[in-house]
Specification:
binds ligand MTE, five-stranded mixed beta sheet, binds molybdenum atom, alpha+beta, Sulfite Oxidase, Chain A, domain 2
């Protein structure tokens, strides 16, 4: 998995704030945090606590108007079929040839009803459309319209257990990442199959991608393959990128 290290000024400021928050609110219920790897990753813990203690929990990301939609570059992987990801590339290439008719999203882990969802099943849930600003850690932003199903609807349908704390995502290009339940149940956290009124294109993550509007762009995983709900944080190792980067 190729990911890179980044400390922005914003992160530094939030980290500073959160240090304060961590000391002011030592008994806060959000203070059992995920950590990635080692003490050098403490910034994740601090940023997480800052957002979770000092900011309103379910504040909404700003939504824009149709006329605000901008050009939107595709970055990172732009087609998992490009042979870089072994069996996954082969599988994705095959799905692509079939216009994703055979694509299924797997949901497993701490749910009462593990299983798979076809695109038509996913599209049978009430949808949500939102026009939001995507912020990439590389310094660009773009505004796009996303249509999909709230992740909360799918998690509830799968019968998520009360003890569950994290939702882990796996993609066709070998990405793995997780979010906590506050982000997972946020009304703007959706599994998106539409962008700007069309089916999600391959460069932007076809057939289904995550949109986590309250965090930086790399949390919005493209090319979703599998979702695993867990009680405990799974440390995927030092990805080089912070686990939590709220915006
Ligand atoms: N599976 C996967 N998801 C991904 C990426 C990727 O390379 N692979 N890139 C991330 C980054 S860094 C950004 S900025 C956005 C880019 O989305 P876009 O290509 O639709 O602009 O997707 C994120 N999700
Ligand atoms: Mo990004």
């Amino acid at each position: 998995m190729k990911r890179k290290k980044l400390v922005t000024r914003r992160t530094a400021i939030i980290t500073g704030l959160s240090t304060l928050g961590a000391f002011l609110l030592p008994g806060c219920s959000h203070s059992s945090p995920p950590t990635y790897g080692n003490i050098l990753r403490m910034g994740d813990w601090l940023t997480y606590n800052a957002q979770r203690t000092l900011l309103p929990e379910q504040s909404m990301a700003k939504e824009y108007n149709y006329r605000d939609i901008s050009s939107f570059p595709a970055t990172g992987t732009i087609n998992p079929a490009d042979n870089l990801f072994g069996d996954s590339s082969e599988e994705y290439a095959q799905l692509q040839r079939g216009a994703f008719a055979d694509w299924r999203l797997t949901i497993e882990g701490r749910v009462a009803r593990p299983g798979t969802y076809s695109m038509s099943q996913i599209q049978s849930f009430p949808s949500r459309t939102q026009i939001t600003r995507h912020t990439c850690e590389e310094g660009w932003t773009a505004i796009g319209q996303w249509t999909g199903v709230p992740l909360a609807s799918i998690l509830e349908h799968a019968g998520i257990y009360p003890s569950a704390r994290f939702v882990n995502f796996y993609s066709y290009d070998g990405w793995e990442d997780s979010i906590d339940m506050l982000d997972a149940f946020h009304p703007q956290t959706i599994l998106a199959y539409g962008m700007n009124g069309r089916d999600l294109s391959i460069p932007h993550g076809a057939p289904l991608r995550l949109r986590v509007e309250k965090q930086i762009g790399y949390k919005s995983m493209k090319y979703l393959q599998r979702i695993v709900v867990t009680d405990e944080f799974i440390d995927i190792g030092d990805s080089g990128w912070s686990w939590y980067v709220g915006i």
